């Protein structure tokens, strides 16, 4: 996928700062995402990743600078976006199908059922959330986010509490639905391997500033055992850990996207 086009920028941050009293969390941040792009944001705890996501969602307002959706300033809750959190945030007193229908106008049943089928849980619509596994609850949370057909999906460590196998299954599901529905996505994660597996670009934040903006030009589905995948993973980890690179980073043309 080539993002060097004449298409208008879908999401843009221009000089965004965020202060909490005397604490400067984000410092003059500039970032652009084109429509349909998948961006992953990584960095150590406390660097400002989740704050960035809340600002783009319109859950908080920036202290200075501007956030634009399709060149229009974002001044309140971002109606074009849905956000998915680590804990799913399902309502335990509502059955699965009723968690999905929240906010849906009119005749909702068909759309809610389709959303559950898209995440492989069509047979769980009458279950209570507490009867589901952690992975199943996150599938419900993903369906609840996507049932509104958002232009922008924001993912705040949504897979952080899952076991390794379930996490990889969910990564594949998110990638598949992103490719089908063509929404723009911004993923915040501590897992650099997850970032390289899913993202078109990986953004590294340090102390509230963007210190790396790395395109990942690998064909999909990505093979984690291929040398180019390992190279990008090592490159980003070296930068996060402030390690000297062990070798020059050279990507073989065979592993790049055409």
Automatic annotation (TrEMBL):
SMART domains: AAA. It is an enzyme of class 3 (hydrolase). Residues 11-232 form the ABC transporter domain. It comes from the Bacteria. Keywords: ATP-binding, Cell membrane, Hydrolase, Membrane, Nucleotide-binding, Translocase, Transport. Its EC number is 3.6.3.-. InterPro entries: AAA+_ATPase (IPR003593), ABC_transporter-like_ATP-bd (IPR003439), ABC_transporter-like_CS (IPR017871), ABC_transporter_ATP-bind (IPR050166), P-loop_NTPase (IPR027417). One of its GO terms (molecular function) is hydrolase activity. Pfam families: ABC_tran (PF00005). This is Sulfonate transport system ATP-binding protein. It comes from Virgibacillus alimentarius.
